[in-house]
Amino acid sequence: MTTIDSSRPDQIARDAPEPFDAPAITPALSVAGISHCYGRRQALSDVSFGVAPASFTALLGLNGAGKSTLIALITRLFGIQAGRISVFGHDISDRPSDALQLLGVVFQPRTLDLDLSVMQNLLYHAALQGIARREARLRGEEVIARIGLADRVNSRVRDLSGGQMRRLEIARALLHRPRLLLLDEATVGLDVQARADILAHVRMLVAEQGIGVLWATHLFDEIIASDDLVVLHGGHVLARGSVTQILRETSASNLDMAFRSMTEAADRGRSS
Amino acid sequence: MSTTFVTHERRKLGFGNYVTCLNGILWREALRFLHQRERFISALVRPLVWLFIFAAGFRQVLGISIIPPYETYILYEVYIAPGLIAMIQLFNGMQSSLSMVYDREMGNMRTLLVSPLPRWFLLVCKLLAGTVVSLLQVYAFLLIAWFWDIAPPLIGYLTVLPALILSGLMLGSLGMLISSRIKQLENFAGVMNFVIFPMFFASSALYPLWRVQEGSPMLYYLCLFNPFTHAVELIRFALYDKVNWVSLAVVAGCTAVFMIGAVIAYDPGRGLARRAPAGGET
Q1: If exposure means fewest CB atoms within 10 Å of the residue's CB, which of A13, A220, A228, B173 is most exposed?
Q2: CA-nearest residue of chain B to A76?
Q3: Of the CATH numbers 3.40.50.300, 3.30.420.40, 3.40.50.720, 3.20.20.70, which one belongs to the domain with range A9-102+180-271?
């Protein structure tokens, strides 16, 4: 499913030709040797993995595993202390503008402006991306229709349901037509139906629009066999590869069991 | 499944994109301001209370001699009007910074900072937007003050505009510089007490400096080195179509220093990092 050797994302990024010449070869996201500390506390330790274009990669980890720290580093909210991150070959530290243009983000906390309308939120985001107003309005109408909020275009965001807000955030993240979408616990606080709808919508984006997705979650039931998987625990990558491959290597019948066996072994190793 | 790949974009960002971004940030701040009517009203009530009550009470106590830019004896209300204008901008600048700390905690600031445009530019746009909001408040105050017989020459309403922009930027930058060192929202109120009130009272906003000098030479020098004093004097002179060059130089210099300091010191991870050790998601 993916041609990327996720154990050597840095190698791929360095050897690959220009991303727009060969988008199938250059990883959508390359995280290489990332470590991060909050004071003395190590939040991430030598984290490396890659996300292929037009693929769905789940970043699985419990609360405190380091998922949000990693998202903050990829989006340049935190400065990189050690390692290297690139988006379609553009280093986030050296060429942030090129990298961020190709990146859409849905953060864990809601980042919509509750007092503005659905369209106003989209227009604001478009302006931040430097998209002229007329073009922004056209794109806004297009994405609003796609997420089924055409009748709420002038509604204040405050009046939307949690699921609608999340769909709007995803639509907003796609407004500038990125090639990689990061979603940090995007279904937190939503009911079962809203979760399923959002997950289906994101998988549709991968299939139909060829967007690479990094889906950070702690919920096993959001991951399917055909996904790529990165297991993050205590700031360390415990496993990466396809779900089937990880199940085979851990001899587990399901992801829950595989995750438990990996994390328990890691915790034992750390305490001994 | 059939795959229909759409066009993805990587554009060379040019001048037009920067202007679009600036417009967007100004538009958003203006909309937010309009939605928060209570903020507008409270921003007006504060200086009006000073003007209608404090100044009226002190009119008989504090005599004002003829000092530049005034060419005749003036009422105390007329004297403190520029100080109250600067007070509006001081509060607005600090409030804008407060909203940046709030936005950082609530996550809205992340939306701004993942823009592909340079971070320094985004922060300067935020400062400009805060200044524009303060201009709306100042002109509303001047309109009400006009009915209170505080009527500078008509040209003064125009010539004060550049002074207001500059002083608004200086006070906004100072607020941003302070907020960049604030770890959480609750700390901000305390800092405000150590910034707003000392700055306001140790200035020429309420009394001329020669009167301060008579009372306390030390306080006089404190006032003299207070950038807020120079913001007040810049506005005072501009309202009467004059330029106080010393104040202009001080305010321009402080704006540059505070702005550069704020951009360098701004750390978007500060609010995020604070939550991390508490056991929340990291």
Answers
A1: A220
A2: B114
A3: 3.40.50.300
